[in-house]
Automatic annotation (TrEMBL):
InterPro entries: DZIP1_N, DZIP_RILPL, Znf_C2H2_type. Belongs to the DZIP C2H2-type zinc-finger protein family. GO terms for molecular function: zinc ion binding. One of its GO terms (biological process) is cilium assembly. This is Odam protein. The gene is Gm7337. One of its GO terms (cellular component) is centriole. Residues 214-248 form a coiled coil.
Length: 385
């Protein structure tokens, strides 16, 4: 898994999904989405079996990561945080178990990160498919360009050959037209005749072999004319095919571009809607957690008020006992009574006032007042016995 431009792009050989679901987790079913990319792949939460590395986690400076955008640190610790097991973790000082609400919050955060990583893997795979399609389209476009270039070169050569044949035919027609203008010139000698009959008899008598050659030349000319006509037809047919292919390619390219644009817009809308839904879910969950914390805080506040009221009652009773003890000191009976040692009285008073001292340990004056009240209470109890 790698980070590029502050985003996580998983590699092709990413971790395999395990078949056993996490204990207490509900198996997820296949999620589908009406988008051009097709349905989402099967997703299931992995079990949390790894132990968290507290030393490695404690060495991370969160403020430094935020300030320097240190995504490499996130990359190194994302698996340790997402797939660690915290049910058996205990406080190193008091050995007490983790708060259930805090544990639930951490587990929800782990599941959310795992689901986001899965969605990111799916989006990355779809992006690779779209890029491959684009590459294929570009290669097809390059092949079509090469084919068009080759056909244009063939057309240019055919046009040159057609011009050459046209010049040849024009020269032959010009020569034949000049001979028929005023007299009938013999093609094999310098003699000229007044009509066609004399010319034919001359050719039969003097140029019988040359007439055969002339007929052959005429046949060749006729053959060349047929070839020229055939080349013209082929040229016209090739031009028509080329125009049709160009038109078809333009129409197909425009349709593919429109479809790709529509697919990209739908995909972007789907991503935006999914992000909004996820944000709303996170906000709702945070509101619920906040309400639970406020409720627990109010309960603790009410309990603290009750304990403070009980403490005031105990202080009042201690002051009353102290007054009674002062009254009994003045009596002659109290003079003959043996008063226990101060250390024992202090020990007894501290033992009796230990629950109260826990709630007033933040103030030194209150601790001294609690000790005095405990001492007076112990002395009073001793005198009463």
């Amino acid at each position: 898994m790698s980070f590029q431009k502050h985003s996580c792009y998983p590699q092709s050989n990413s971790q395999k999904r395990r078949d056993a679901p996490e204990r207490g987790a509900v198996p997820r079913t296949r999620v589908t989405a009406n988008s051009a990319s097709g349905p989402l792949p099967f997703f299931q939460f992995r079990p949390r079996l790894e132990n968290i590395d507290w030393r490695r986690l404690g060495a991370i400076d969160v403020d430094k990561v935020v300030g320097t955008m240190d995504v490499l640190t996130l990359q190194e610790n994302i698996m340790n945080i997402t797939f660690c097991k915290l049910e058996n973790e205990k406080c190193p000082y008091c050995q007490s178990e983790m708060d259930p609400l805090l544990l639930k919050l951490i587990r929800l955060t782990q599941l959310t990160i795992e689901y986001l990583v899965h969605c990111q893997e799916f989006l990355t795979s779809q992006l690779s498919v779209v890029e491959e399609r684009l590459h294929l389209s570009m290669s097809g476009c390059e092949q079509n360009k090469q084919l068009l270039t080759k056909q244009a070169e063939d057309i240019r050569l055919l046009k040159q050959e057609c011009r050459r044949r046209k010049k040849m035919v024009s020269a032959q027609q010009l020569m034949m037209g000049q001979a028929q203008a005023s007299h009938y010139q013999c093609r094999f000698c310098d003699k000229a005749f007044m009509n066609q009959a004399f010319l034919q008899s001359h050719l039969h008598r003097r140029h019988a072999a040359d007439s055969c050659l002339a007929r052959n030349a005429k046949a060749q000319n006729h053959k060349l004319q047929e070839e020229i006509n055939m080349l013209k037809e082929q040229l016209q047919f090739t031009k028509t095919q080329l125009e049709s292919a160009q038109h078809t390619h333009q129409v197909r390219f425009s349709k593919d571009y429109e479809m790709q644009k529509i697919n990209e817009e739908d995909f972007q809308k789907l991503v935006v809607r999914w992000e909004e839904e996820e944000k709303q879910k996170l906000v709702d969950e945070m509101e619920k957690v906040k309400e639970m914390f406020m409720k627990e805080f109010k309960d603790l506040t009410s309990k603290n008020s009750a304990l403070e009221y009980q403490l005031l009652e105990i202080q009042k009773s201690n002051m009353q006992g102290k007054l009674n003890m002062d009254t009994q000191r003045d009596s002659p009976r109290f003079k003959n009574y043996h008063i226990p040692s101060v250390s024992k009285i202090c020990y007894a008073s501290l033992s009796a006032s230990k629950p109260v001292a826990r709630w007033i340990s933040n103030s030194q004056g209150r601790r001294q007042q609690g000790a005095e009240s405990g001492l007076s209470q112990a002395t009073t109890d001793t005198l009463m016995t």
